[in-house]
Every structure is written in structure tokens, then in C-alpha cells.
């Protein structure tokens, strides 16, 4: 299931991220990186399950009636760069992910 297309964007080059199912592992990759390689855009490739786990925990911590199928009711935009993921929620809260650090 592709839950994030349309709201996941590259903070390095501004393009959207594309969904890909890699033998059961669902990932998102920047369009520029996918078409022109890592030298054209250094944004990281992210596993969907990693994002879903963070978003679910963030929403449940706030007593929201969250489910993955309703993700777009809760999340405005997911920005991905080479070393950070920033998830903006409709209620104004933010999740930040940096190497070795997740701020719910
Ligand atoms: Zn990019």
C-alpha cells in the first residue's frame, strides 16, 4: 500500500518522492535521484514502514484515532533530505529524524 505519495517531498531539490515496491520492501525515492542518480540529488531513500512507525507513535502519543489508511488526515507534508526527515502534522506538531535521533 502506498500511503504517502503526494505529501512526501525532497528538501534538497524540491521534487516529489516516488513510491516503489522492492520485493515487498516499500520505499520512497526522490524523482531526481531515481532518474539521474545520487550525484544529481543526495536525498536519502526511506522505507515506508519507518515513516509509518514514527507517524503512528506520534499520533497515538497525542491520543489521536490514527490508522495508516487515514494518514493524510493527520500529516501535511513529509520533507526528506540527505540527513534529516521532517514530518509536519495538521495540528501544527512536527516529528524530526536525524541520524541516531528521532524526536517524536
Ligand atoms: Zn531530490
Q: What's this, in brief?
A:
The chain is α+β, with helices and mostly antiparallel strands.
The unique ligands bound to this protein are:
zinc ion
For the sheet with most strands, the description reads: 5 strands, mixed
Q: In angstroms, what separates the terminal alpha carbons?
A: 24 Å
Given the C-alpha coordinates, what overall shape results? globular
Strand percent estimate: 25-35%
Low-confidence stretches: none
Helix content, binned percent: 10-25%
Q: What structural category arises from helix and sheet content?
A: alpha+beta
Query: What's the overall average pLDDT, rounded?
Result: 96
Order of helices and strands: EEEHEHHEEEE
- Count of domain modules: 1
Query: Strand order, biggest sheet?
Result: 1-5-6-7-8
| Strands, count | 8
Folded structure, characterized:
The chain starts with 7 loop residues before the first strand and ends with a strand. The protein has three helices and eight strands, in the order βββαβααββββ. Helices cover about 25% and strands about 35% of the residues. The protein has a five-stranded mixed sheet. It has about 100 residues and is α+β, with helices and mostly antiparallel strands. The protein has one domain (about 10-104). Zinc ion binds next to helix 1.
Amino acid at each position: 500500500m502506498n500511503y504517502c505519495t503526494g505529501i512526501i517531498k525532497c528538501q534538497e531539490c524540491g521534487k516529489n518522492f516516488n513510491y516503489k515496491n522492492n520485493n515487498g520492501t516499500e520505499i520512497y525515492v526522490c524523482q531526481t535521484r531515481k532518474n539521474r542518480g545520487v550525484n544529481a540529488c543526495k536525498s536519502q531513500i526511506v522505507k515506508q514502514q519507518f515513516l509509518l512507525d514514527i507517524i503512528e507513535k506520534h499520533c497515538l502519543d497525542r491520543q489521536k484515532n490514527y490508522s495508516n489508511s487515514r494518514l493524510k488526515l493527520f500529516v501535511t507534508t513529509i520533507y526528506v533530505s540527505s540527513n534529516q526527515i521532517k514530518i509536519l502534522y495538521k495540528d501544527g506538531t512536527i516529528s524530526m529524524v536525524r541520524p541516531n535521533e528521532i524526536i517524536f
